[in-house]
Amino acid sequence: MAELNFGYLPGDSFFHRLDARVKLIGLILISIATLHARMAPLLLLQGTALLPLFRIGLSPVKILRELRYFFVLLFFVFAARSLSTPGEALFSFMGISPTLEGTLMGLLVSCRLLLIALAGMLLMATTRTWEIKAAVSRLLAPVPFIPHARIGVMIGLTLRFIPIILHQVRQTQDAQRARGIETRGFFYRLTRLMIPLMRRTLKDADSMAIAMEARCYAEERTDPQLNAEKRDWAALAGAISICGFVILL
Amino acid sequence: MKILEIENLSHRFGDGTFGNQEIDLSVRREEFVVIAGPNGSGKTTLLRHLNGLLMPHVGTVRIAGIPVADDLRRARQMVGMVFQDPDTQIIGETVYDDVAFGPENLKLNRKEIERRVEDALSETGLSAFAARRPHLLSGGEKRRLAIAGMLAMKAEIAVFDEPFSNLDYPGVRQVLSAILALHRAGKTILLTTHDLEKVIAHADRLVLMAEGRIVSDGPPETVMAETERFGVRQPCTFRNGGRIESWLS
Lengths: 249, 249
Prior knowledge:
The complex is a heterodimer of chains A (249) and B (249).
Chain A (H helix, E strand, L loop, with lengths): L13 H4 L2 H15 L4 H17 L4 H7 L1 H17 L15 H27 L2 H12 L7 H30 L8 H29 L15 H19 L1
Chain B lengths: L1 E11 L5 E11 L3 E5 L6 H7 L8 E6 L2 E2 L4 H7 E4 L12 H11 L4 H14 L15 H14 L4 E5 L7 H16 L3 E6 L11 E6 L2 E6 L1 H4 L12 H4 L10
Parallel strand pairs in B: 3-8, 3-9, 6-7, 7-8
Antiparallel strand pairs in B: 1-2, 1-4, 4-5, 9-10
Helix pairs in contact in B: 3-4, 3-5, 4-5, 5-6
């Protein structure tokens, strides 16, 4: 498992040192703010999210590679918007007529989703899974009738398994490429990937669950220390201000 | 004094086949026991009963006098386990976090966790790797990491399932040194292998398994005479009538 790109990158940057709760709240605020944001502030925020990603060692190529499947989704979102929104047709080709209004709206929605993805990537790269688990658990603790510890565990485990699934995707794809699958169509490759991928992922998940059990894993455990300091409050205030600014603009 | 007592243990899988049958085995404190047998002889199944990852259909396993089923948490703390595939055993996102995983599950306070992790990393020579991503370690280092996790739990019985598989010569020497250091520190060692050559020079006792049963048990020099009958290759030097040498000499 030598090449794991998605997930935590050890480091000591400003974002690494921030309290996980502040980062989580920041992500939620940004996600809400983007719903009302226009193009200019969105691009500004994307640039702001990219800088710390570069700072922690993720190159533009790596970021693009990480998000390559997400870009496919964005393309579909963009295409659906540009084709389904009524307005002035840009051109017409074989019955396909994207509109100017739809294209602009598609670009805006894609930029909004991209910003959320970049912010999520920053959170994942600078926060340990167990810190996220502890943050979710602590933030939900005051809410009555919610099993906050269990929800924290579920989120923590889900996040922990994502790199394992991605690793399995790469391994299975390599094994299939070695036997010349690239000459076959997209849907054939997809079906041939999914079945072994699911089998191997479940097997690995089972092995990891056994290893965790062997080390006394339980819902109630000593969570990482989460201490909100001046720096964290300042960052939270900064996130609120930026989001307010984005919405007002 | 007996630290491990297995009485009349039988385990049957869901499809009706027996993984283990009528196993009786007692291990003294600080003993070094090698369990050998071909693939499918029931070695791993037996090991998984020692900390309650599997429960016997018939029979009892006692750790320091107390049945495993009566106190699973105690059994899992006392019996540290290094699995065959080190990748599926890695839970933490850094080397430090991975070693801390066990003590955190024991709900120790943060200061004690830090002390244990630092001691375990120092004893296994991994202090310099504390901030590294565990998946990027070499095979030998990954197994040393698993040993560090076991040390941090203060396990008294160290169980190794095929610890030398997929390791190069320096990797085997690294892992063997770590195992011997554990033994010198007073831990009881149980180790499964089908490759006696690498470890038998250090063992007090050799247990031979075939088809889920113990077929021979005694001092290595006595039991080794019959290993080939049960599908386990004798070490070369033993075949040639010479003295078995350590891989560390």
